[in-house]
Amino acid sequence: MLRCCRVTALVILLAHPAVAAHGQTVNDPEARLAQLGLSLPQPNAPVANYVRAVRAGNLLFLAGHGECGNSRLTGKVGGGVPLDSAYASARRVGLCLLSTLKAELGDLRKVKRVVRVLGMVNTTPDFTDHPRVINGVSDLLVAVFGERGRHARAAVGMNSLPFGMTVEIEMVVEIDD
Amino acid sequence: MLRCCRVTALVILLAHPAVAAHGQTVNDPEARLAQLGLSLPQPNAPVANYVRAVRAGNLLFLAGHGECGNSRLTGKVGGGVPLDSAYASARRVGLCLLSTLKAELGDLRKVKRVVRVLGMVNTTPDFTDHPRVINGVSDLLVAVFGERGRHARAAVGMNSLPFGMTVEIEMVVEIDD
Amino acid sequence: MLRCCRVTALVILLAHPAVAAHGQTVNDPEARLAQLGLSLPQPNAPVANYVRAVRAGNLLFLAGHGECGNSRLTGKVGGGVPLDSAYASARRVGLCLLSTLKAELGDLRKVKRVVRVLGMVNTTPDFTDHPRVINGVSDLLVAVFGERGRHARAAVGMNSLPFGMTVEIEMVVEIDD
Fold it and tell me: CB-based contact (8 Å) between B88 and chain C?
């Protein structure tokens, strides 16, 4: 009887493509993070008279985030900072955004959808590969949230960013609670 | 009797200023597009791990769009790209945004209001005429949607944009369905 | 009896920290403005085919604002414009945003929360102190609205801005009416 039920459960698992892809972690972004070997950093305190996130209705607007913690990548892509370093920086900024979400929501399962990402890259004037930098955060969001992590995005080149950081990212998330 | 009714209809038509201006196309943006001799291009696929638009509640957030199709204007305004070429590029980006709206909504009449436009122009550091570039998309939106096309806007100068394109535009639209 | 009631009211007043700090102006941003010796400027007309603000549901999206009135600070921070001049410019832009809010809402008490501020600073490529510039508007918003003025913020460096202005600010506000 037990054996029969296990088989049934497996069939259901395989019949649902999303479950088949990620297993039981598909609806649990924090389990997915652990599965990826990632842990959330301590979010930075805002450096001025503002807050990390504000909720209005079901939308959560996150402040522009750089990397959190003690070090961050600085400098311009196209002018000394290699593309893969900038991609890695964008991914680390993504983890800081997730830290803020966790601090605001208590549980990342409350994220119904990542709505909008504005990826700002500190560049030289002739840089053209912004999408490949901001993929660092987009790939992370889709890895952690699955389809709910797919977002509308702009990836653009800034003339300068606070503290000379290479990547700053703003995000809007829809909440379900 | 028939003749009498036609006259009455005409009087009503003239009495309503919006109808008088655009005729019966005022509430049908797609008829208005045809009237303007414009057709919607095929929208580009996103160049990375994101989507063209995400809806949250009644708001539709569109990704940053450049020109779609096989060619697009590249280069910096104030540094080789003339103002009227940049205006025309912004208008073509507007058509791509409309293509995305059509693909997402099925019918442009579902647009209740164009809410926000962020017009990003690839410029030299001393350029100052951003509004005249981004008018390319603003004029199109008002021509197609009438009063419902009037939006809150920022027109700003970027240091660089993906693929060297001259204009990238992000948009938020309110939906009524 | 009357005397007794006054004392009770005073005790209640002191017991509530927000009231103790700002007195009865805490829920009246316009009284708070007067207390700060500030008056709202006449808002500028949009310079093109758009509007100053669009409401969608309970969110009010404000267009990118520069300083209003007859003069405005121009030039790049890090290249001739001192930091404290840029801070003062950001504060004046903040007053223009408040003027637009007053014109749209009739009464600033309808602001439930300042949600998001995008502070765009016209800079040289190596500028790093954007937060200290955009504090000009953030400090004003918190002084006028108290806790309801605390917002999610990004402060970033643009390559160029319309008319060469030093600071342009976009804002999203939640409305309660």
Answer: no
DSSP single-letter state for residue A8: H
Those of residues 48-67 in A touching chain B at CB distance below 8 A are 57-59
Q: Please report which residue ranges of chain B form alpha helices under DSSP H.
A: 2-15, 17-22, 29-35, 83-105, 130-145
Burial class (CB in 10 A: 0-12, 13-18, 19+), B121: buried
pLDDT per residue as tens digits for the range A59-75: 999 999 999 987 899 99
**What's at C39, amino acid-wise?**
S
- Give the number of residues written for chain C: 177
Would you write out chain B's pLDDT as a tens digit for each of its 177 residues?
A: 333 333 333 333 333 334 434 444 558 999 999 999 999 998 877 767 789 999 999 999 999 999 998 789 999 999 999 999 999 999 999 999 999 999 999 999 999 999 999 999 999 999 999 999 999 999 999 999 999 999 999 999 999 999 999 999 999 999 998
Spell A34-61 as b/e; 16+ CB within 10 A means b.
eeeebebeebbebeebbbbbbbbeebbb
**How far does the CA of residue A39 sit from the closest CA of chain B (Å)?**
22
> Class for domain C26-175, per CATH?
alpha beta
Give the closest of B51, B64, B160 to A125, CB-based. B160
Element (H, E) at C104: helix C83-105
CATH of B25-175 among 3.30.1330.40, 3.40.50.150, 3.40.1380.10, 3.40.50.300? 3.30.1330.40
Fold of domain A27-175: 60s Ribosomal Protein L30; Chain: A; (3.30.1330)
The ipTM of this complex is 0.86
Is A101 in the B-facing interface, judged by CB distances under 8 Å?
Answer: no
* CA–CA distance, A7 with B8 (Å, rounded to integer): 73
Residues of chain B positioned with their CB less than 8 A from the CB of C76:
125
pTM of this structure: 0.87
Task: Decide if B49 and A142 are in contact by the 8 Å CB cutoff.
Answer: yes
For residues B93, B96, B102 and B105, what is the CA-based torsion angle, rounded to 10 degrees?
A: -70
Q: Are B176 and B73 in contact (CB under 8 A)?
A: no
SS3 B81: strand
